[in-house]
Amino acid sequence: MKILVLNCGSSSIKYQLVDMANNGEVMAKGIIERIGIDNGELTHKPINKETYKTVTDIPNHEVGIKMILDALLHPVYGVIADKTEIVAAGHRVAHGGNFKESVFVDDVAKIEIERCFELAPLHNPANLSGILSMEKILPGLPQAAIFDTSFHQTMPEHCYLYGLPYEYFEKYKLRRYGFHGTSHKFVAEKAANILRKNWKDLNIITCHLGNGSSIAAIRKGESIDTSMGFTPNEGLIMGTRTGDLDLGALLFIMEKENMNYAQANNLINKKSGVMGISGLSYDMRDLDNASKEGHHRAMIAVKMFSYRVKKYVGAYVAAMGGLDLLLFTGGIGENDCVVREQVCENMEFLGISFDKEKNHGLRGKDEMISVPGSKVTVMTVTTNEEFVIANDTFKIISNR
């Protein structure tokens, strides 16, 4: 039973073809990057074959998914002989609204996903685009939606409510939902297993850092707080999102610039973050390179990003009453040694003894980056949201 997992982000598609009949073996995996930007790139990694890469303009997600299917079926670097070998597709969906668990994709599910566009304007449209693209390319293929918000349903009321009149929660369910739940849960369990510990005995802070970033406080196996909120805009500074912002500042700009709702929404979600600060790029790799060349605004953007992560780490240590594990994951968390060092420097008072030499140049590995004997263990942990999605998809279609 082969399941195609699609994780459609605002400018990328991560994918895996997973054989659930063979203990969840990954037959192929890869990523499409820079969708809608010049020089898009497909990196396709089939099992027991050489990695294939190609660079071309990729205007939208439908074109990207067609490229993925072509790669899976290719006579040289493909891993299946016919598209009928794919029995289902599982999709990561950022905002599930009132959904508390993964669901089979039907008309009702698609309507609900679309209703959440205004709550997750960078991701839910891309997520639904992936679903609709699969319907066009492989009509009749069963699909499942796995929501980022599900894991954070354990947050207590005093953590998920906002300081607004309670009637807005009652009328609109306006509250903190949190995102990246599949990733936060996966890396927390994975790191504990690597250390041969039970994650339900530990206090863990997971830092999922990428173009979209969030941090979660996981106490004894349950999410008690997370940096993203009602929408994915709250929390850390991100690629193009403001993160935490004085609402008065937004109202001030709207008045001065005569902005309407749509323009303001576009400002805080697509024109801000490290892109808006640097004026250069939303990609941390570009900013790191520019910083080395003395680009002041790029340096400031990187420092602001790291500083916000550091503040949330400190806050969540206080919220949980201590910390056992600090984890870095996601595209930036797994690969950017500069950000990790800036977050962890001068944190000895919290029990974090950071190994700068081991951290330097470390990319894409499950590795300890705290010194032996550190009270708090710091690790880079590769996330695999795709496996969680495949497993949920398998359960959903098996029960139909």
Give an account of the 3D structure.
- It contains 15 helices and 14 strands.
- Helix 1 (61-73) packs across helix 3 (124-137), helix 10 (284-292) crosses helix 11 and helix 11 crosses helix 13 (337-344).
- It has an 8-stranded mixed beta sheet with strand order 5-4-3-2-1-6-8-7, with helices on both faces. Strands 11-10-9-12-14-13 form a 6-stranded mixed beta sheet, sandwiched between helices.
- The chain is an alpha/beta fold and 400 residues long.
- The mean pLDDT is 94.
- It has helices at 61-73, 107-115, 124-137, 157-160, 166-172, 181-194, 247-256, 261-270, 273-278, 284-292, 296-320, 330-335, 337-344, 356-359, 385-398; strands at 2-8, 12-19, 25-33, 40-46, 52-56, 86-93, 103-104, 143-147, 203-208, 214-219, 222-226, 325-329, 367-368, 377-380.
- The protein folds into 2 domains: 2-147, Nucleotidyltransferase, domain 5 (2-Layer Sandwich), CATH 3.30.420; 197-380, Nucleotidyltransferase, domain 5, CATH 3.30.420.
- A hairpin with a 5-residue loop joins strand 4 (40-46) and strand 5.
- The chain is 38% helix and 20% strand.
Key attributes of the depicted protein:
400 residues, single chain, 38% helix, six-stranded mixed sheet, 15 helices, Nucleotidyltransferase, domain 5, eight-stranded mixed sheet, alpha/beta, globular
